[in-house]
Amino acid sequence: MNQSLVSIAGHSREKIEYLIRMAQEFEKHPNRLLLQGRVVATLFFEPSTRTRLSFETAANRLGARVIGFADPKVTSGTKGETLKDTIMMVSNYADIIVMRHHLEGAAQYASEVSPVPIINAGDGANQHPSQTMLDLYTIYQTQGTLDNLNIYLVGDLKYGRTVHSLLTAMRHFNPTFHFIAPDELAMPESYKQYCRDNDIRYIEHQDFDADVIAGADILYMTRVQRERFTDLMEYERVKDRYLLKLDMLAKARPNMRILHPLPRVNEIEYSIDDDPHAYYFQQARNGLFAREALICDALGIGLEQVQNDKTIIL
Amino acid sequence: MKRQELIVSALDHGTVIDHIPCDRLFEVINLLHLQDMTSKVTIGFNLKSAKMGTKSIIKIADRFFTDEELNQLSVVAPNVTLAIIRDYEVVEKRSVTLPEELHGLVRCNNPKCITNNEPMKTVFHLKDRQKGTIRCHYCNHEQEIRKVKIQ
């Protein structure tokens, strides 16, 4: 039974809620021997230190052993080996493969050829389901629900894979989205069409100030990267306009939380870190619990088994 | 008076593909692998057509194609007409329809798609029949069917 996780786009509301409940169990007790005797492979054809560390920590805390590579330079892919051959070889050794690849669709293809489950840890600009899962988990954790929330997406909404996946996954929960981005990095028309097709309300804002932020339950910040701009003058002009400053939180709702997929460069003023609205470091920590849940789910370990787990290490 | 028509011997058994746009003729030939055939194939190119101005036509003797093979033609030439001939009689006339899925046919226009970097067949899903858009099964990029390149 191959339960690969390529994308979260196809997940039902029930499946998302099920995975959230499972992640809650892992938050209560992250250290277990549920995967004792199993081998998890992490194949990073594209380096991504924090995603790899998070997956490897999840595997280690569940008692699995981890093999793999962190840098594509050491793999035979550079010698011209096909992705299929690498996957077939590693699937002889590991019970599950966590892979990151710079090419879009690589995880889908790997899941079709692999005899063991594949977890997509990012395939180019396409999908990054474990990030979406930890975002959903964090939103649920901070708001007590996923339903009827005002979610503000700020920064790079054009290339930002995380905001696109989040938008897609939230369609089950009647959200209102607010888009705040420079013109060059505005939300693509295809995603606005997706919103209209799925009855998702969205509002586009020109300003980014205390009055706009006052309506937010979730303020999801992303990095505005210099290399995304064709016109560097334009970058210099807009980069500070999407910087979140402490005084902009003056009218924020008490339940509002600031999320960021990290790494942060200059989107959030450092003085905000100590503000109760700041939540990005806890969000990153939630990545561990979300990934523990995703690995177990892909291996066919159910919520009931996790709830009745006798291997918890206290 | 001199006859102005092209005289081609009638087909006793086989398939006639008519109303092929001239700029798509060679793609149709490739799609159906006509170059590998051993039976008689007659190809007319730049023929006069009341409907289209100019058109191309292919007559293939002793060969009948599956629906799947013929529906592939819809990608490059959606308005062709087909006639199935048995014993010099047209036993069936039909058009082609774009299938829900295209396997190993179209190239993905996203250079970062895995299908352009790995020896594998592409898969596309029909997204909008009216608009003629298809979506790559792997990278999810969409493209217009009339702009596709054949894999």
Q: Can I get a quick summary?
A:
The complex is a heterodimer of chains A (314) and B (151). Chain A is α/β, with parallel strands linked by helices and 314 residues long.
What does this protein look like?
- The complex is a heterodimer of chains A (314) and B (151).
- With 314 residues, chain A is of the alpha/beta class.
- Helices cover 36% and strands 14% of the residues of chain A.
- Chain A has eleven helices and nine strands.
- Chain A is globular and about 55 Å long.
- With 151 residues, chain B is mainly beta.
- In chain B, strands 2-3-1-4-5 form a five-stranded antiparallel β-sheet, with no helix packed on it. A four-stranded antiparallel β-sheet of chain B has the order 6-8-9-10, with no helix packed on it. Chain B has a two-stranded antiparallel ribbon with strand order 7-11.
- The longest helix of chain B is centred in the middle third of the chain and has 10 residues, at 67-76.
- Chain B is elongated, with a radius of gyration of 17 Å.
- The chains are: A alpha/beta (314), B mainly beta (151).
- Chain A binds chain B through residues 82-84, 101-106, 108-109, 123-126, 190, and chain B through 110, 112-115, 117-120, 136-142.
